[in-house]
Amino acid sequence: MPVQPSSRTVLADWFREHSSTLTTLDPEQSLDDLEGLREIVGDARVVAVGEGAHFVEEFSRARQRVLRFLAERCGFTVFAMEFGFSEAFPLDQWLQGEGDDGDLAKVSRAAADLMHWLRHHNRTSGHPLRFAGLDIPEAGGALRPALEPVVEYLREVDPDALPLVDTVLEISDRFLSGRGSGAAAAPAWAGLETAEQNKLTATLARLSLRLRAVEPLYVSRSSQSRFDIARRRVEAACHTDYMFRASDALMSGRGLAADLSVREIYLAESLRWHLDHAEPGTRIVLAAHNNHIHRTAFSLEFGGSCLTTLPMGQHLQRTFGQDYRAVALVHTADHVPEMHPDPEAAVGFTLAEAHLEPAVPGSVEAALTDAGLADRITLTDLRHAPRDEQGAPPLNGIRFQSSHLSTPVPEAFDAVLAVPTVTRDRTVRF
Prior knowledge:
Elements: H1 5-18, E1 19-22, H2 36-41, E2 46-49, H3 57-74, E3 78-84, H4 88-95, H5 104-107, H6 112-124, E4 130-135, H7 144-157, H8 162-176, H9 182-190, H10 194-213, H11 215-221, H12 224-251, H13 261-276, E5 284-287, H14 290-293, E6 298-302, E7 305-309, H15 312-320, E8 324-331, E9 335-341, E10 349-355, H16 364-370, E11 377-381, E12 397-400, E13 403-406, H17 409-412, E14 415-419
Parallel strand pairs: 2-5, 2-8, 3-4, 3-5, 8-14
Antiparallel strand pairs: 1-11, 6-7, 9-10, 11-14, 12-13
Helix pairs in contact: 1-16, 7-8, 7-12, 8-10, 9-12, 10-12, 11-12, 12-13, 13-15
């Protein structure tokens, strides 16, 4: 529905009144300008900080400032990311000070600048942060990162079950070698014979059921903590296998409604897993794309069909209620790095700058522009955003990568942090 001129004026006036200007994106500078975030966060156990697009340097720097504020001034103790659950354990040890500063490449392929900054923060700030991963391995592009540690575990507690993992890895190595993301893995999976695809799924299901059935035995031979981690790793592999099939079906025009939400529930349940296994009083800062932290279901156009997503944030909202807060990160620039499918690329896509059309009226970006705030770094509390006579928010859109997403923004997010510029993060390597 088009936004009426009067609504544009209302939104512009409201943003001018309710937005605070931030002084810098430098994570090492004073945090005083972020004090407005304290009331938005309140006593929440989980605060999600998003990004409107991947590979944007300004979003990374803004997140670091917010992370430091929440750690140093609000008592948050865990930093969780849209990062592999299994892969995060060795990275957390490095971030806590193990090894040398130059060992990151041996430990993880994570964003180097962020991880070196976090290691330095843990060493110098007096408010160290543990690190937690939530995602399936390599965003659905691999099985080995989840299952190789399971092999080591089974050698100790149940060697007779090792053939199950061996079978899975033998099949996965036929199509995942050199792959780095779900975008590349799904079409490669489609190249398997149907019998092999089904064998992969069935074997993973048997492995998962066996772990559940013999938990007391495994725990007696190891510990509850080690068993819980092994089981979650197997669950990661099962969810990843499902995503191979779901992604291929979507690209082939045969996808089930909301099928890709299988990854979203794994993300949400991983966060709850970490809280369940953490000390009482633990509070988590969660970094993920805006579309993952979004509190309500939404739909996008994809390949001529409508793609519905039940995002992680919706599950977290159902689980935690007011203990979950979501802060979207947006920009008001006229360009953004965009991912384009490329079967020849190792990760299944290439990056290129996308020129953006003017922001759609009713969107966050249009409201900031109309309010004369597009050239500033701003923080806006959305919890009391205006409503029309029917109770609907006229703030009904937000940029999604290089596209526009129609959504009731105040229902999806508690606040929005906006930056005026976009610089492609050149430190990211594929």
